[in-house]
Design a protein that fits this description.
Elements: E1 2-7, H1 14-25, E2 28-31, H2 32-39, H3 45-54, H4 67-74, H5 78-105, E3 110-114, E4 128-133, H6 136-147, H7 151-160, H8 164-170, E5 173-176, H9 181-191
Helix pairs in contact: 2-5, 3-5
Length: 194
């Protein structure tokens, strides 16, 4: 089974690329953010460790994680963010590695892991990393059209993500998704050797 890591900035079109890989190539799609969210649900070991570390003030009325409350703590302190990542990231890697083994045993031939942080977390799971690139003006237009974001919000999101050079230096394949999707599909076909 081939394992490809997909990464790129917000608005680069990763979701459309993932949908295409699933539909056209039968890829198993794993989005690490979704895996992380699942591992942080009430009753999980990850959830218990987060509450032990950050206190019950991060819980809502139902006793679930209040992401806004937790975010206000961890994004105000690199040390606190590192603590949270130290709890969550190893669990995510363990879960995804287990899923990869399971899907390989089922005879699946393509497994795609998607995460914005792949250059830092999870790259060891992948045979190769692909950077889905799109010009910043294209990304901005997509985010305005699809999510209704303001320029200010888009600027904040782009600033909070790794720089383009970081993605390019970490990835062996760059897919330019700035133009037509037909062009993107051709690039995917040219680079996907199963």
């Amino acid at each position: 089974m081939k394992i490809i890591g997909i990464t790129g900035g917000v608005g680069s079109g990763k979701s459309r690329v993932l949908a295409y890989l699933k539909d056209a190539y039968g890829a198993v799609i794993c989005q690490m953010d979704e895996t992380a969210r699942g591992l942080q649900k009430k009753g999980t070991r990850c959830f218990e460790r987060i509450v032990e570390t950050f206190g019950s003030g991060i819980l809502d009325e139902q006793g679930d994680l209040n992401r806004a409350a937790l975010g206000s703590i961890v994004f105000a302190s690199e040390e606190k963010l590192a603590q949270l990542n130290g709890i969550v990231h190893p669990e995510v890697i363990r879960q995804v590695a287990q899923d990869i083994r399971s899907k390989a045993a089922q005879g699946r031939t393509l497994y795609v892991v998607e995460a914005a942080l792949l250059p830092d977390v999870g790259k060891e799971l992948c045979d190769e990393l692909w950077y889905i690139y799109a010009d910043e003006n294209v990304r901005r237009e997509r985010l305005k059209a699809s999510r209704g974001y303001t320029d200010e919000k888009i600027s904040q999101m782009i600033a909070s993500q790794p720089r383009e050079e970081r993605f390019r230096s970490s990835c062996s394949v760059v897919i330019d998704n700035s133009g037509s999707f037909e062009n993107t599909m051709k690039q995917i076909g040219d680079n996907l050797k199963l």
